[in-house]
Amino acid sequence: MASEELTQTGYIQHHLQNMAYGKLPEGYVRADGSIMEQAGWTLAHSTQEASDMGFWAVHLDTLGWSIALGLLFSFLFSRAAKKATTGVPKGFQSFVEMVVEFVDGVVKDTFHHSNKLVAPMALTIFVWVFMMNLMDLVPIDWLPMLADHTIGQGDGHLFFKVVPTTDPNATLGMALGVFLLMIGFSIKNKGIGGFVKELALHPFNHPVMIPFNLFLELVGLIAKPISLGLRLFGNLYAGEMIFILIALLYSGGLVLGTFGAGLQWMWAVFHILVITLQAFVFMVLSTVYMAMAHDVDEQH
Amino acid sequence: MNINLTLIGQTISFALFVLFCMKFVWPALISMMEEREKKIADGLEAADRADKDLELAQKKATQQLREAKEEAAAIIEQANKRANQIVEEAKVQAVAEGNRLKQAAEAQIEQDVNRAKEDLRGKVATLVLAGAEKVLGASIDENASSELVNQLAAEL
Fold first, then answer.
1. Which residues of B touch A58 (CB under 8 A)?
2. Predicted confidence (pLDDT) per residue in A169-214, tens digit
3. Which residues lie below 8 Å from residue A54, measured CB to CB, with a gap of 6+?
4. Do A170 and B1 touch (CB under 8 A)?
5. How does it sit in the bilayer (chain B) (predicted)?
6. Which secondary structure element, helix H or strand E, spans residue B154, and what is its range?
């Protein structure tokens, strides 16, 4: 926020910008007026810089948090799996078993084929997305401030978003993973011919209608991952936005600040429902898409 | 909010976490839980079976007790019978033995009587002879008289 005025707009913009590490071209005029002497990879210092980096940039905060949380999930669950005994489960183990049983139930309800990947995928999605969403409940300035004073220069310059699912890259990235699995399983189960036939001969089974069918089905197909990713992103982004707006109240004096604290608590309580529900929806839809990819004689 | 390389990175990490979960988390947990389910089902079944077994064992024990009682009664009855029989046999034997002893004693007595008679006869002959000698005062032909005496003795 050093280069921007400490305004409300600046505060919001700052909170919505990821920590982008990307390539800037030679001769690029940076936010502080300096000029890139040669093209190179650097941290973006402003929103403009971040968007000028184009595709060749990485959101370090998004990837860092999502991978850290993924590792935490893997560590906790694999440890529980290793320690698991058929005796009476205790503490964390019974929690893990509860989650696994829940996911297993959901998958068995929607997915009736034999596939070793779908259930673990659903479990990973559910827990991972839930953990990433859960970061939303951490008061929005804590971790960015901490990061600013540890890895940044302490001048409020560092962009740092802690909720990976408020970054469309993360949600669409996972949706892309689901999409690839979906295509893969479709081709595996129906053959390339079957897959193409499904695209070309539905919903109107007539040669004349093939272009129309293809258009419809391709749009439908592409819409699946996009809607999957954007749904999660939209919900979490909106939730994050509300948190940011509430946080603005803290700058409005004692009365407004107290009011803001109450609001933040209420929104956080409500948000617990949202983040769980969104993780659940992401999991169920992924499972349903997998089931679609396995249904050989699907009729629309 | 730009779409950039992060998307690919997220997809790759998604794939890796899913793979990890598929390899190391899910199968172990699910198989363990299935095993436990089976164990619990087995346990319940075993409890049911144990209940049935207990009932059966109780029935069997009662029956065996009854049988044992019956058997014991039969044995006692038989023993009584046998005892009576032995007593009867002993009585019969005792009577027989008594009779035998009586007969033997009677035979012995008869024999003794006979022997005493013979003795007596011999002694009478000698006495008669000695008496006659004294009466006659003379010796008589021993041969002739002894024959006479013997004849006499035989007539006694």
1. 4-6, 9
2. 999 999 999 999 999 999 998 888 888 888 888 788 888 888 888 8
3. A22, B2, B4
4. no
5. Single-pass membrane protein
6. helix B142-155
